[in-house]
Write a structure and sequence with these properties.
By secondary structure, the chain is α/β, with parallel strands linked by helices. It is 36% helix and 24% strand. It folds into 2 domains: 1-101, 3-Layer(aba) Sandwich (Rossmann fold), CATH 3.40.50; 107-197, Formyl transferase, N-terminal domain (Rossmann fold, 3-Layer(aba) Sandwich). It has helices at residues 13-21, 41-48, 65-79, 95-101, 121-127, 163-186, and strands at residues 2-8, 28-35, 53-55, 83-86, 105-109, 132-139, 149-156, 193-196. The structure holds glycinamide ribonucleotide.
Length: 197
């Protein structure tokens, strides 16, 4: 059985979808939900699901990313994960940290990569007049929102969409995509998955 650690910063809806999916013949189980924000709503949800949680408050480390990551790494090592899922984890990770976990760390990003790396992806898709928008699950490498794409889900942009309506319509597709990519990844399948809603 593969051990999965999930890193979150907020509400953790992707984390909940992933955790709920890891049952039955799934090749993985959640062993830790870790947040950079002790008040993240997702931590309570994880505890309610009986999953171990930990928090490392990045604010205590100021600009010293390496010091923050050293503690993050300690918490991860205690849980001995085979796979790490970033699920709405909003801290940029250093090259040193990502190198430790290359080949076993996934991220979900709310755009059709390689478009719109970074923040405000929904607003940027609307500003560009895109007719389709979506999300991507990719393997994490040193460069931000880069690394091999394992899956993408696509939705149509409607004429009166706002960043908020677009985000709300995309979120259930994120859950569907991430759950399916993780299921395949845990079983050793890294082929590209495409879905549309
Ligand atoms: C999701 O939309 C995820 O794609 C995004 O944050 C949200 C987290 O929601 N991630 C990023 O923007 C990463 N750069 P959740 O906490 O409900 O899963």
């Amino acid at each position: 059985m593969k051990r999965v650690a999930i890193l979150i910063s907020g509400g953790g809806s992707n984390m909940v979808a992933l955790a709920q999916s890891m049952v039955g013949d799934h090749k993985a189980r959640p062993v830790l939900v870790l947040s950079n924000d002790p008040s993240a709503g997702g931590l309570t949800k994880a505890r309610d699901m009986g999953i171990a949680t930990a928090a490392v408050d990045h604010r205590e480390y100021g600009k010293d990313r390496s010091a923050f990551e050293a503690v993050l790494q300690e918490k991860l090592e205690e849980a001995q994960p085979d796979i790490i899922c970033l699920a709405g984890f909003m801290r940029i990770l250093t090259e040193g940290f990502t190198a430790q976990y290359e080949g076993r760390m996934l991220n979900i990003h709310p755009s059709l990569l390689p478009k719109y790396k970074g923040l405000h992806t929904h607003a940027r898709a609307l500003e560009a007049g895109d007719k389709v928008h979506g999300c991507s699950v990719h393997e994490v490498t040193a460069a931000l929102d880069d690394g091999p794409v394992l899956g993408q889900a696509q939705i149509n942009v409607l004429p009166d969409d706002t960043p908020e309506t677009l985000a709300a319509r995309l979120l259930p597709m994120e859950h569907k995509l991430y759950v399916e990519v993780l299921r395949r990844y845990a079983a050793g399948d890294r082929s590209l998955l495409k879905i549309s809603g």
